[in-house]
Amino acid sequence: MLETGTYTRKDGTFICYERYEPDDVHADVGLVYLHGLLSCRKCKKATFVKEFAIAHQMPYLVFDFTAHGESWGKPEDVRIGRCFRDACDMIREKTTGPQIVLGSSMGGWTGLLLAQEMPDRIAGFIGLAAAPDFTHMLWNHVLNDEQRAFLKKGGVLGPTEETKGYCFCYDFFEDAKKYFLLNKKIRYNHPVVLMKGDKDFLVPDTVAFKIKDNLLSEDVAVWTLKGAEHPLSRPSDLEAIETAIEFILKKVNK
Fold this sequence. Notes:
The chain is α/β, with parallel strands linked by helices. 35% of the residues lie in helices and 20% in strands. It has a single domain, classed as Alpha/Beta hydrolase fold, catalytic domain (Rossmann fold, 3-Layer(aba) Sandwich), CATH 3.40.50.1820. The chain is globular and about 55 Å long.
């Protein structure tokens, strides 16, 4: 059964989600997809993972983070902490048993936080151009002095053509500092695949290897996809994602 619904909290905020619960479950684990910044639950990769889950009779969950898609919030309401809360709430409320989490870009950052928070529920993790701590690089190396000063005074940048549709406020950067991962050990011991494109000019090539080094898990693979850019949405990229799911499934089902 494919279900589309809304999870509403006591504070009035809500998360829109889609969930697949097969009538005859053929797997001991489910799949959860976490989208990236300025994306949503209906993106190409999420749809591909949903089709994989349906074809293999696996439970599946995807949702719009706060201030994305059809969920509560305006663009300036995006916070890494809120995304983390969204992921924790949805795993607890809308899934049962172990899950394999696929996180794209910002969703990869959130997925690593989630894996640390509830390692008993996250049986494996697949990072798709995972971008932990990207706010640090953005603040220090992309924004100029004038823009930083504007944000500190309470201004909001974007969403405009100049910001490529993104929207940033000072609280977005300040909140993110509480969730940095590249400066510490990542307490997670289950199988991990980190996928990255060698033409990804948004996330530095070193990030995947830094994640690998910081993870406590000894079962971490870094896959570099030739010619792939940040979205990892080419047909060959999607085939690689399918291979990664099957790769993790074999390890989880041992």
